[in-house]
Amino acid sequence: MVRLKVVNVSKTLEGVHTLDNLTIELHDKEFVAIVGPSGCGKSTLLNIIAGLLNPDQGSIYIDGKDWSGLTGRVSYMQQKDLLLPWKNVLDNVSIPLVLKGTNKKEARETARQYLQDFDLEGFARYYPRQLSGGMRQRVALLRTYLFASDILLLDEPFAALDAITRHKMQLWLKDIRQRYQPSILFVTHDINEALLLADRIYVLSARPASIKLEINLSTTSTGTEKQHLEEQILAILEG
Amino acid sequence: MKTSANIANKTAPLIAFLILLVIWELGVRIYHIPSYILASPSQVLVTIAETYPMLWFHGSMTLLEAISGFVLAIVIAFIMAFLLDTLFWLNQAVYPLLIVSQTIPLIVLAVLFTIWFGFGLLPKILVVILVCFFPMVISLSDGLNNIDPDQINLFRSMGASRLKTFSMVKLPAALPAFFSGIRISATYSIMAAVIAEWLGSNRGLGYYMTLQQKQFAIDRVLAAVVVICLLSLLLVKLIDLLEYLLVPWNRKDSFDTEEH
Ligand SMILES: Nc1ncnc2c1ncn2[C@@H]1O[C@H](COP(=O)(O)OP(=O)(O)OP(=O)(O)O)[C@@H](O)[C@H]1O
Ligand SMILES: [Mg+2]
Fold it and tell me: pTM for the complete prediction?
């Protein structure tokens, strides 16, 4: 079942042709990665899907309904964690619930139940500045998840982390995904990350971004095959 | 080591101040400067002790004018900054006018207010408001403008209304900037009240100083100056305390200094 569909989307930002006729699908409970060179328009694409930007051409369909230019349907975790420094962990992750009209106390109660799964047990009252980079990302992920748990857009969530923490987070996300089974559209420029986590990968070209390659990983799982794919993707990204 | 550096930071200006006082005291005594030209610090101190009921009588009026004007200015500045932030066309139309309005000499306005509104409380409060209002509007407006647009986008993506975004993100984020404007205004407020009194009133430190000055009672003029400084400092400290309580995440406590 197709949850999210990007159909023939093009976008020009301040005279720069950024997205060129992109068509992308995200199926139910699927993990789709989008890899592309830096500055090719990956964040722009997510901004359009989230409804923050209007596409110049094309449309966004979610569960068959046209959501082009409309916000408030999917969860969107941007490249920065964007935690509010004056709110502690629990209040930061409660924000989406409060915005949806839940009262503060109930929102906290609901959010608290997820702290353990997100490895934040015992940190409810900590402020963002007191947290490590990995923890901040997990807080932002939980906030994202609590807004809309079915479709998540994640924009390079682990890019700023050191290699060891990043790998831990990748394994953790794999695990969380098994448990909660959301549909995830995941932007990265780390090929190994995409190969490790995704069911399917779209490889984008440099600006204006178009789809160069679509890889279905559910059929390819052996190490040598992945190695071959990695080389193939690298060749595309390096132009 | 850090604590000794901290103590040095606090005591250095105090020592410099004391040295200045000693030079002043010795200068007045050695050169036998007559008291109608300059009073020594010790004389001023004695005068404060002798005339404190009078200083309090006038000082309390000045304080009342300053605080009333200051608080009203905070409220007006807040509303103004909110409107400027919400209504783009108002911002375009009014912001430049605000800047230009600061070139109007305050003294002229104070004189005009006295002509229009008499010797009472109102013209003084108006002067204080005019002086205090500007730094606060500018600082709050700048604070509201300097917010990471991605932070706003996050709230937009979650379907938050503009009012919710203002109260949950923009205002708290702008509070530290607002407070720096409030602090500047606090230092001006007493002075503004004094200037307004100077130009026409029958009570207040400004009035008291014009009286004493005409009688060449320099020690009394300086005693009033000391009171003005103390009241201004008091207001600033009050604002610091308020900021400490209201903006706890921005505290410059040991936790932050560790990182520098
Ligand atoms: N609001 C904007 N207005 C104008 N140009 C923009 C805007 N946002 C991004 N751009 C430009 O559009 C292009 C695509 O930006 P985008 O952030 O989508 O790339 P990206 O693939 O996410 O890059 P990165 O890997 O660095 O995150 C870049 O050249 C960028 O400079
Ligand atoms: Mg990006």
Answer: 0.83
